[in-house]
Amino acid sequence: MNRFRFKKIGVVADIRRAFLQIGLSELGLGPHVKFYGVGREGDPAKPRVFQHRRLFSGFLCSPYLLGATIRFHLQNVPLVRKTATLLLGINFT
């Protein structure tokens, strides 16, 4: 909070929305992200299996997971944007 007061520009984020933007890789997709839905034409006799591709509400929403995701993206930035990335890395991690 002290760093926020000393700088000329401040950034505020909605953390709840940030968790909903975290996608799951193919390796992270397991049985815990699958769910059943009604089949085509609304026939309940033919259920379909669906799979979440993003974190859903109440699932692994930890600050560590969000921080690791931000660090991952900051480390995989093109060289053209390295200066801005370093500044963001100092402030957000």
Structure description:
- This protein is mainly alpha-helical and 93 residues long.
- The protein has helices spanning 2-6, 15-20, 63-75, 82-92; strands spanning 34-37, 48-51.
- It has a two-stranded antiparallel sheet with strand order 1-2.
- 2% of the residues are buried.
- Keywords: Membrane, Transmembrane, Transmembrane helix.
- The chain crosses the membrane at residues 55-74.
Mean pLDDT: 70
- Would you identify the regions where 5 or more consecutive residues have pLDDT less than 50? none
Spatial ordering of strands, largest sheet:
1-2
Number of strands: 2
Beta fraction of the residues?
5-15%
Distance between the termini: 14 Å
What order do the SSEs take from the amino end to the carboxyl end, as H and E? HHEEHH
Coarse morphology? elongated
Helix content: 25-40%
Q: Figure out the total of helices.
A: 4
**Class per helix and strand makeup:** mainly alpha
- Alpha carbon gyration radius: 19 Å
Sheet bearing the most strands, described?
A: 2 strands, antiparallel
Write a compact overview of the structure shown:
The chain has four helices and two strands, in the order ααββαα. The protein has helices spanning 2-6, 15-20, 63-75, 82-92; strands at 34-37, 48-51. It has a two-stranded antiparallel sheet.
List the helices and strands and how they pair.
Elements (H helix, E strand, L loop, with lengths): L1 H5 L8 H6 L13 E4 L10 E4 L11 H13 L6 H11 L1
Antiparallel strand pairs: 1-2
